Amino acid sequence: MLGMVNYLGKFLPDLSSELHPVAELLKKDMAWLWDKPQQRAFNKVKAMLSSAPALAYYDVGRPTITDHKPLVPLINACDLDKAPLRCQRRLMRLMPFNARAVHIPAKQLVVADTLSRNPLRDSTGTDTEDNVRAYIEALITARAMSESKLDLIREATGNDAVM
């Protein structure tokens, strides 16, 4: 916890005094006892980390910055069918966002998003219907099909009892 917090410390005003009760536990001859002052300090620092200016909501209008150069052409690619099969599902999930990526070497990235390294799992699961729609949309736009073939698919879909 302290490593992540100290990394963002320059963005958190008065961090050392807020963390003092927790830092006291690290002293050599100090008995380790997590009590109310430590919990209050922990909660306060957690609130500081999750509010401006340390963190902000994702802005879809801004480019995504990555230090992994091979991702840039993959994310910025327009044709889903040209992407490797193992990447297509992830790219389909990005399609509604019109994502664009920019490469910046890791040594030039000032603040790494430490919370992205251990994200919470989505408790609602995947939204299958949206994924299927995105996949169908990608197939229709990426593949040139004749109108008769599309009519045949529409008719078969309409006759399917499950769909």
Strand order of the largest sheet: 1-2
β-strand amount: under 5%
Helix content: 40-55%
Mean pLDDT over the full residue set: 78
InterPro entries: DNA/RNA_pol_sf (IPR043502), Retrovirus_Pol_polyprotein (IPR050951), Rev_trsase/Diguanyl_cyclase (IPR043128)
SSE topology sketch:
Layout lengths: L1 H6 L7 H10 L11 H14 L14 E3 L4 H6 L8 H10 L6 E3 L24 H15 L4 H13 L4
Parallel strand pairs: 1-2
Helix pairs in contact: 2-3
Question: What do you see in this structure?
Answer:
InterPro entries: DNA/RNA_pol_sf (IPR043502), Retrovirus_Pol_polyprotein (IPR050951), Rev_trsase/Diguanyl_cyclase (IPR043128). It is a single chain. The chain is built from 7 helices and 2 strands. The model has no long low-confidence stretch (mean pLDDT 78). Helix 2 (15-24) runs antiparallel to helix 3 (36-49). It is mainly alpha-helical and 163 residues long. The relative contact order is 0.09. The chain starts with a helix and ends with a helix. It has a two-stranded parallel sheet. The protein has helices at residues 2-7, 15-24, 36-49, 71-76, 85-94, 128-142, 147-159; strands at residues 64-66, 101-103.
